[in-house]
Amino acid sequence: MPVTARHDHTPYFTERLGANKGERVVIRLCTSLDVIQVRLKLLEYGEIAHKSTKEAKERWFEVKLPILSDRTRYAWNLTTRDDSLNLTMAGLHHTRKGYRSWYTYLAGHTSPEWIWSTVFYQIFPDRFCNGNDDLTVKTGEWIYNGRFVERIEWGSPITADGDIHGHYGGDLDGIRQKMSYLKELGVNGIWLNPIFKSPSNHRYDISDYRTVDPHLGENDIRVVLDGVFNHTGDECQLFVKAKESPESEERKMYTWKEKKEGELEYHAFFDVPTLPKIDYANEKTFDEFIDGKDSITRHWLRKGIDGWRLDVAHMIGANGTDEGNLEIHRRLRRAAKEEKKDSYVFGERFFDAEEALRGDGEDASMNYHGFGLPLMQWFARENGEFEPTKMEVGELMEILWESYHVLPPQIALSQYNLIDSHDVPRSLFRLKGNVDKLTSVLTVLFSFPGVPSLYYGTEIGLSQWRKGSMPWCRESMIWDEEKWNVGLQDRVKKLIRERKHQMSLQRGSLRFLLAEGDVLAFCREFNGVDGEYECSVCVTSRRGEEHKITLQMPIYGSLWSLKSVLECSWCSQNKYPDFRLFYENHWNRLWTYFKTCSGVALGQTQPQLETKAVQLYKDFLQLRTSEPTLHSAKCSEN
């Protein structure tokens, strides 16, 4: 059934985001229904109030929304001559949906909007590029956890024996030298795994938070850094002093327990002796790490970084637990924003992060739960532990939608989306080396709401040699171009370019068009302040063979009809809106483009659209697909 009413967060529907409590914001709804009344339902101090709207123009209704609380909830009621319907994020329904499905206006919240047009690239420093061999760790240079560290030859396979002791020699000089590669790829943001002084190759056991590891080089790159604020390394001077002196101030920064045979005398991250857990039960810990005048959080933002990725954000807390977790993140956010208003703070949360994403803590979370894990499970037909699963596309759509629509729009757009990382298996390995499937996954990654992130090497087909996550997913980057999958890399470049040039992909709302069989399709829609409409449609299939699908395309009241635009052979003045469509047939790497403008004839370069790939009907589009397609269209009402 075609959508018959629409409201979302984009500028023409919601005048502005982030207004303060006590202010009013104009919001609008459009509909193709023959309504006799449209009312706003507002959760007002615990009661549902009804407010009248006015018809701004044909089938467009508007009202001033009073911002009553930190999170103002509202819905719409549409009355026709023979029906009454409620519109929420869950769609049109006769019943009144629960508040989690209502629209949420987040008061006074400012997101770092630069991230919405950013494509991130995650770098595990030791494995990306060795730019200065003089900095490389030497075998036997020190003892860590009872063993000498070891230098590993670049390109050698990862081994369990060399998990934390084996150093490949990647450094900041190497990253600097490869900046031209990253710019050519199109990425414009970098998340670096820890770069602070540490005895291991992963550097999550930090010994000095204020010193860049001398084996990496100097620090003058503007990036998002990895904030390890749940635990330190056991060689960190804070912990050394705490262990040596029970009366020291540092002692209070860790949680101690009665020593028993075979057990640690302190709480540690998963009881790993080298990772003592930080205790936030006292202010000294906050002063050091979170919001003191020269806390670690503030220190590096002053140095010029653009934000923090918070390691195991869900575990940070007091007394050896996650006690006070959300308040810790509130304080960290305040400190970060005081130092740099548009800094980006996102947390590693593998699970449902809804409670942490209320607007007063992290800007976003790493979207494993609501994006990466279920998407990869569906495509791979097995879970992250490599166990077979019969997950259907309807279940995939359900968790993607559920995780998206419960968040305020600014936060949903800020979610850090990824398909693999240093903690989970490489995507190409999970897909059993199937590059076509990886292309499909990447198309969804760059089309979905949130901030897309590539794990180093994914774009050239870097994989791993055996099952598992850590350390197997941390192979060294391949710099021999003859070993690159150039076709995959070209596809990634095109997706990045499309992402960075389409407002609908950066800021648009989300609507699923199809979840059936082996096909998932959704669109991103954006209405600008001047009424300009832009729509991008992502279609992807895991079947691997050509087949037909039918999509219901968006039609609302006086908005454009896809058929009327695509079938016209010419455009008279003001008769048709401006329109453009990108279509890719993955089998022959064909990209087609055309645009209709007022008074300008259509080109003759798109016969494929008219016959082989796309069939057009009154309110839907039918196409044959076996691989991902991404369509983007714009129009302006005249």
Task: Write structural notes for this entry.
This protein has 638 residues and is α/β, with parallel strands linked by helices. Among the domains are: 5-106, Immunoglobulins (Immunoglobulin-like, Sandwich); 234-273, no CATH class; 508-635, Immunoglobulin-like (Sandwich), CATH 2.60.40.1180. It has 15 helices and 33 strands. The strands form 9 sheets. An 8-stranded parallel beta sheet has the order 22-21-20-19-16-11-24-23. Strands 3, 4, 7, 8, 9 and 10 form a 6-stranded antiparallel beta sheet that branches. Helix 5 packs parallel to helix 6, helix 7 packs antiparallel against helix 8 (393-405) and helix 11 (435-447) runs parallel beside helix 12 (486-501). The longest helix is centred in the last third of the chain and has 16 residues, at 486-501. The two termini are 27 Å apart.
The total count of strands amounts to 33
Sequence of strands across the biggest β-sheet: 22-21-20-19-16-11-24-23
* Helical proportion, percent range: 10-25%
CATH architecture of one domain: Sandwich
Class computed from helices, strands and strand pairing: alpha/beta
Task: Give the termini separation.
Answer: 27 Å
Q: Within the CATH hierarchy, at the fold level, what is the topology of one domain? A: Immunoglobulin-like
Largest sheet: 8 strands, parallel
Q: Average pLDDT, to the nearest integer?
A: 82
* Highest CATH level, the class of one domain: Mainly Beta
Radius of gyration: 26 Å
Unreliable stretches covering 5 or more consecutive residues: 216-221, 555-627, 633-638
